[in-house]
Structure formats: C-alpha cells, structure tokens
Amino acid sequence: MSLLKILYYPDTRLRLIAKPVNEVNKKIKKIVNNMIDTMYQEEGIGLAATQVNIQLQIIVINTMEEEKNNLVLINPKIIKKEGNISIEEGCLSIPEYRASIPRYNYIKVQAINIYGEKIEIEAESILSICIQHEIDHLQGKLFIDYLSKFKRERIQKKIQKKRKNIDQGIK
C-alpha cells in the first residue's frame, strides 16, 4: 500500500487538464491501487488522479454498495445526462468546506476499466454526483467553481486566514 499526497486548493496543479490513458498497463494499475488506498485513508468517496498530482484521466469511486467495492473509470466520458439534483458536496482537496452544487441526477458514462476493457455504466443520485465531481477534476474544475463569486471569495479568504494561522502556529 502506498499513499499518495493530496493537493489542496489553491494549488494551481489542481487546474491542469488530465491526459487520456493510452494503455492500461502495470504502471496504471499501480496508480489505481494507490489511489484507492489514498481514498480510503482520507475517508473520501471518490478521487481523481489530478488530486494526487497525476495528470491522467483516472478516477476511483467507492460505490458504497459493499465495503471496498470500487468503481475505476479510465478516460471517463459522460454520453447521456438527465434530470437535476443538488446535495451538499465536499472535496478532499478543499477540506472543511461544503456547498450544494447543481448536477445531473442520471448519467451514462463510457470509460475503460482496470482490465483495459471499454465499459458503459449508468449512475443515479449520489453515485452520479460523485462521478461528475471527479470528472470535473480531470478537466481542472473544482466544485467551488459552481458557486457565486461572493461565496468563492469567502471560501478563499477563510483558507488564506487558516493558512496564515497555521504558519504562525495559531490553531
């Protein structure tokens, strides 16, 4: 088990656009396994490779149906979307902040699985939200980008204040 270091907002590497994976080989499988270990260690329900400074189109998701039942999507692409849903979302790269973000309730996704096979999956509700959230990461987009300028600036100020306090040894 190797844990990967999560990038935290406002790290500019979170804004990089991930490149497609050309071949699912031993190296890619190792990255996926490390991402899964990191996701569980950090108690997240999803993780995009860009969040651990790997600029490849890979996401892992805990489907929450059974313990350690993970969904691995390589080069994911939403091909159908319907309905609306909004719940409070959080992000491992922006800890302690949550916001309701408008998403599609249903999506159909094409991707490659860990075995290098083309797959299509359908997702609804929280699984759909999680997949959309992680795909956004692959495109350099964060959930706070959906917020108003005022709310985004408020979060940025809180993060700056917290960072300043940490630098000064204040909790």
What do you see in this structure?
There is one protein chain. By secondary structure, this protein is of the alpha+beta class. The protein has one domain (12-169): Peptide Deformylase. It is built from 3 helices and 7 strands, in the order αβββββββαα. It has helices at residues 26-41, 125-138, 149-167; strands at residues 46-48, 58-62, 70-82, 85-89, 99-103, 106-112, 118-124. It has a 5-stranded antiparallel β-sheet with strand order 1-2-3-6-7, with helices on both faces. The protein has a two-stranded antiparallel sheet with strand order 4-5. A hairpin with a 5-residue loop joins β6 and β7. The longest helix has 19 residues, at 149-167. It is globular and about 50 Å long. The mean pLDDT is 93.
Fraction in beta strands: 25-35%
**Can you tell me the overall shape?**
globular
CATH topology: Peptide Deformylase
The low-pLDDT segments are none
Number of domains: 1
Treating each run of at least 4 consecutive H or I residues as one helix, how many helices?
Answer: 3
Largest sheet: 5 strands, antiparallel
Throw out a few tags for this protein:
171 residues, Peptide Deformylase, five-stranded antiparallel beta sheet, 3 helices, 7 strands, globular
